[in-house]
Structure formats: C-alpha cells, structure tokens
Amino acid sequence: MAIKQVVYEPLTTDTARELSKNLQLFNQNDQLSAVEIGDGNLNLVFRIQNVINEKSYIIKQALPYAKVVGTSWPLTLDRSRIEGESLKRTYQLVPELTPKVYYSDSTLAVTVMDDLSHLIILRKGLIAGNQYPKLAKDIGIFLAHTLFFNSDFGLNQQDKKIQSSQFINPELCKITEDLVFTDPFFDHDTNNIDDTLKLFVTETIWADPALKLEVAKLKQAFLTKGETLVHGDLHTGSIFVSEEETIVIDPEFAYYGPFGFDVGAFIANLILNYLAQDVHLAVQPQKKAEFQRYLLDVITETWQVFEQEFTTLWQEHPQDAFMNVDGYLEQTLQTIFSDAIGFAGCKVIRRMIGLAGVEDVESITDVNLRNQVKKNALTLGKKLIVQRNELTSIQKLVKVVSDHA
Ligand SMILES: Nc1ncnc2c1ncn2[C@@H]1O[C@H](COP(=O)(O)OP(=O)(O)O)[C@@H](O)[C@H]1O
Ligand SMILES: CSC[C@H]1O[C@H](OP(=O)(O)O)[C@H](O)[C@@H]1O
After folding, report:
1. Distance CA 13, CA 315 (A)
2. What CATH number did the domain enclosing 257 receive?
3. Binding-site residues for ATP, please?
4. 69 C-alpha to center of ligand 2: Å?
5. pTM here?
6. What ligand 2 atom has the least distance to the C-alpha of 75?
7. What is the CA radius of gyration of the chain?
8. CATH number, domain at 86?
9. How confident is the model over 268-320, as pLDDT tens digits?
10. Same domain for 309 and 394?
C-alpha cells in the first residue's frame, strides 16, 4: 500500500499513474495510459489502464473549488470522504448496483473504484433514444434497499444516529439549498436564463406566491427531514447503464435527508428527457411516441418496484415496534411519494433556469425550440410542486406528464 499522502495537491495524468502504481493496482513495470475524463461539474476523473491487458481503474479526485465555476467558488474536499463512505455503505447493501471502492484517502481527496467505461451514462443513452430493459427494476431496488436500510425503519436506531454523524455534508447541502430550492425562484445572479425567456420566467415562476409557498415547504423538508442516507444527486448523469447492468455513481451530495429526494431526482430527469424528445425525435413521430411511452413506463415501474420492495423489507426487517400498526406503511409510502413529486418539480425547474443545465435540453441548438421545451418544463415543474398532494398514485403522475403540452 502507498505511504499516506500528507499534503493535498491536484493530480495530473502523470501523478495519477504514479499513484496507481504506489497503490499496487498495477505492477511496477506495467505500461499504463492515463486520461482525465471528468465531464461533471465538480471533480477530476482519471482512467488508468494497462495498455497490454487493458485492466483499468478510475481515480476520482475532488478539487478545492467547483470546477464548473472556477477557483472563485471554493468547495470542501470533505465531499470526497463522503462520496467514498457512501459508496462503501451502498456496496454493502446493493453490490451489483454500485462500483467497488479499492482505496480512498481524505487528504488527497481521492477515491479509486471500478472502471465502468464499458457502460454508458444514462443521460447520454436516453438522448440517443436507447432503451434499457433493466433500468426501472434496478433503480427501484436501489432506492428501496438504500433508503430502507439506512433509515430508522431498517437500521438499528442507535446505529443510525452514529451513521448519520458521518454524513454531515453542509457545503454540498448548501449548493442544493441554493441551486435547487432557492435561486431559481428569485431573480438571482446564479440563474442562467436566455433574455427571450426572462419575461416568461418572471410571470410564471417569480411572480407566483402560491408556488413559492409550496417550494418553501419543500426546502424546509430538505433542511430538516433527516430520515435516511440519500444519494443526494441521483440524476441520469449519475447512472451508468447497458442492457444488462445498472450502476449508480457520484454520491458526493449524500447526507441524511428525506426519503423522497432521490426518487424525485430520478423522476425529474426522466421527465426532462421526455420533454426534450419533442424536439430530438420531432421528425420521427412514431419513434417519439414509442420512446416517450418507454420513459413513462420506466417512471411507473421504478415506483412500483420501489413500493413492493420497500413493503417487503418493512415486513421482513422491522426495527420499530410500530411498524405493524395498520396504515403506518401506507401513510409512509404516500408521504414519500408526494415529497418525491414536489422535489421532482423543483429539480425540473432548476435545470431549466438555474446554474448547471442538462444536456438533454441544452443540446437543442434552435433557441426557439429550446425555449419551448423549457417553457413546457417550467409549467410542468410548477404543476408537480403545487399539485403533489393530489397526485396520489403513479398513474395520476404519469397522466399529468403525458397530458402536459
Ligand atoms: N467509475 C467510473 N468509470 C468510468 N467512468 C467514470 C466513472 N466515474 C466517473 N466517470 C466518468 O467521469 C464523468 C464525471 O464523473 P462524476 O462522478 O459524475 O463527476 P462529478 O462529481 O464531477 O459530477 C462521468 O460522467 C463519467 O464519464
Ligand atoms: C456547482 S455544482 C452544480 C451541480 O452539479 C452537480 O451535478 P454533477 O456534478 O453531478 O454534474 C449537482 O447537481 C449540483 O447542483
């Protein structure tokens, strides 16, 4: 094993290659290639590969600032520790859906994990119009097992308190509090709004007090509901897929938060792809209808699998004396569902007008067509937030999406 690094410094391809040899991931004489492949908003990601036998690893390193903005936005390196610890905990619960961590160092802020380059990032796969038959089942299972077994329902309640203290993540939570729950709902300078969309945003979002009241409640839930260890950023860019595999990466926003948060993030990003397909597949109406149907089926099946699996875990692994009380499970699931819809609405809106848009929509080059998708998303996001307590079944949610024009 390597001698522990005592000073932080950002890796280069050369030092990343050297680190992988020091960690004995490879033999000293192996010829290695090293490439920085990070395309996310925050971190460096190096792929190190033996050029002869093609064995490879990923070294992810946090930078002391937010890469998308630059050094003017300092950011804690502790997010790397959180990500490593979250991946390890998740691997205990759902190993087939999580990359294995081989090494982590909180000083150097690195996590060494499986290379998943044989898979594709879900967002890219969906933009290309690909369907993934295992996706809904896998994410439903992922959500049920991680959310249940890290909560007071499925984890010894003393152990849960101790575990929650390892996932205090104030700086990354603040990013979400600002970028998801606050800035998009005001005329804030972090927002990224085309001039031609500003009037619509002003009238539809910023001037709607009823919407703001509901967002305030959802933000309060994010701030105070320490129910379970959530991934914290479960968008379609955080999921690797193929026809056979689904692997969830990038839990640096993990913290003890509301059950519905990850469910809502996943649904929101499927909805954004759904709306963007109005443009991407405009010239193939039949394929568009079929693909959008597929996306709605993924939303439906994910929730149904989550609900069934959560119910089974609740019945088979209860940690609380009240869990066999009539109606408790049903009420818990209903609250998770309405929270999830509200969070989904906030996430849809933030990706349309806040910092850090999504490729599904930003890749639409015609500004008028892009704005039309954004307007649809903003009004649908609003509906989800305001109507979340009336949308009491997955069928009702899917109908709101498919009826939305
Ligand atoms: N384990 C991995 N295997 C292969 N590629 C990866 C892996 N982890 C990350 N990547 C690549 O790096 C990109 C950014 O990774 P991500 O964890 O999302 O970084 P960030 O935290 O900056 O968003 C991913 O979109 C993917 O292309
Ligand atoms: C300044 S961070 C913006 C945004 O980036 C994160 O996503 P990712 O790193 O996975 O692309 C997260 O969603 C943050 O809200």
Report:
1. 50
2. 3.90.1200.10
3. 43, 60, 250-252
4. 11
5. 0.97
6. 1
7. 21
8. 3.30.200.20
9. 999 999 999 999 999 999 999 999 999 999 999 999 999 999 999 999 999 99
10. yes
